[in-house]
Amino acid sequence: MTLSDKIVTSMPSQGFEDLRHDFLKALRCMILSRTLEDKLGSLYRAGGRIVGGVYLGRGQEAFSAAAGIHLRWGRDIYGPLIRDQAGRIAFGEPVLDAMRTYLGVSTGPMRGRDGNIHRGRPQVGYMAMISHLGSLLAVVGGALFARRLRGTLGDSVGATSIGDGGTSTGAFHEGLNFAAVEKLPLVVSVANNQFAYSTPTHRQYACEDLVDRARGYGVGGHQVDGTDLLACVQVFRTAFQRARAGEGPQMVVGRLLRLGGHGEHDDASYVPDLQKHSHEGRDCLVVAQGQAVDLGWATPQELRQWEKEARKEVDQALAQVSKEPVPDPYRESWQALSTTALMEGQER
Amino acid sequence: MSSITYLEAIREAQYEALRDNPEVFLYGQDIGTFGGAFKATKNLGREFPGRVFDAPISEDAMIGMAVGAAVEGARPIVEMQFADFSSVGFNQIVNQAATLYWRTNTPCPVTIRLPSGGTAGSGPFHSQSMESIYAHYPGLVILTPATVEDAYWMLLDSVKLDDPVIYCEHKFLYYHLKADGFGQRMPIGKARIARPGRDATIVTYSAMLHESLRAAEELRLDGYEVEVVDLRSVKPMDTDTILASVARTGRLLVVGESFPWGGATAEVIARVSSEAFHLLDAPPLRLNSKDTPIPYHPNLWKAHRPTTASISAELRKLLRY
Q1: What is the ipTM of this complex?
Q2: What residues make up the domain containing B158?
Q3: Is B297 a catalytic residue?
């Protein structure tokens, strides 16, 4: 039985026609993301191929993809975080970039110098996250700021993501406050996935809901059921429209559950069963496939076909990357500055 | 002949950078209408409308913002109100700015101005010298101008560099240090023989250059010719010039204002000891501030940092060996 056969939803079958295109685009990204991540998880567990950790976005694909589909590769600015594989695909990142970075080959954007989710192509507005949470907000904001200063902002928009844990950092506060002061066209996705690594939300914040903070920052606040793709597509459409319309930063808080550990090394045994079986513990991909069928936007056959195509794309990427060269320490430049003349002798 | 101060040189360099390149903008606390806590950006906001921005008190976001802007091709100059506060932006400096080129092949032309070093009455949190902290991290250029000429040329060079620059300007030199003009540009990465000598070498930088020159002058009265090397940039460090000087004198004293544990002065000693041990006629000495926070009262502050007197005393110790 495939994912698409399992779900029954109570979605009404009319009134959402204008979301159809976005929904289906996001759904296909979710399918590809889940397929890719399942493969990465398998490679990790098999051992040997992936050197570092594997950090998956299982359970967060709907929320991530619904943001990513509003971003245009080469025109908008995106600073995704750890659980944004679906959003990265929606933005336009090729599967090859992910595979190459996880396997650390020298053909990838990070050339073996950084791995897994720490990848990007800043020259085209695709920022490569560092591990320090919250620090991307100001970077994405700064890129928008520079465009506005130069007069090239146009209708471009920036987006970045954070989790419930990341909202506790000083960098998140400083970055969002700065973006609000500058009234930048920035959409901040807050995936409230209930656990920051193992720490539950009641040890993370004391406000009733993270969206309450939006008012304090003077930014637009939006809430959504992060397990519900249709709702996510709708809410992000509004948020991106408002950001592009000059209404300043928009903060979208999605309630969901991380369906797995912090990374694949983590069995997440600290997540109570009750929570796994709660509404927020639903698998957003199963929900979305059910919605697609119920709305008459896709047939189960089509869903299976998309899954098949995704598997093919992922398998091809893996096969190709497996043949590509790994970095060679003797050919590595070991140069941290772009100005070669200012590098001190390495042999010292 | 009209004279120009170290602070005016910094302002002038920013003026010219703004004038010559539309990608340059200034970002910092109170730097707009107010002209900055030290007036290093005085009138620049008026002369370049829409190019000089007051920042919220958010050093982390200020640096992060500059990195994002640099990715887009801008060349921001960020003023930290005091070098000490850059610790709040530390993560963005050493992890975001400093790793960007190496990780992603994207240049990061950000200049971060750090009003550095002690002045009487400034206390523990408005007196720090951070050059050694930042020099420890790969991917940053650390400039420590000691003269009006270097303050001017090195700031202009910073803005042109495609790498993040930590520009450590010394507050003690702001108003007192004057020159008749900006002289000749010297390239970044080259140390300068500020005073030639044959009996001992002092390697130093920033405000300690001037204390060291005075100490060398004192020793001249005793018949010693002390060579003084101004590093100009802590990173890259011009090891060749240091070694050549030690080859001439056989004795080395390294003077820095920052805290004594590790750092730029220790780096000089380490390089000379490992690469030119045979050139040394005496154990190399190092003089830094004391290993306590920087004190408030002038009596304590003067005893905390190296001074002409304490440098002279160390020199005598070195020459007696």
Answers
A1: 0.96
A2: 4-179
A3: no
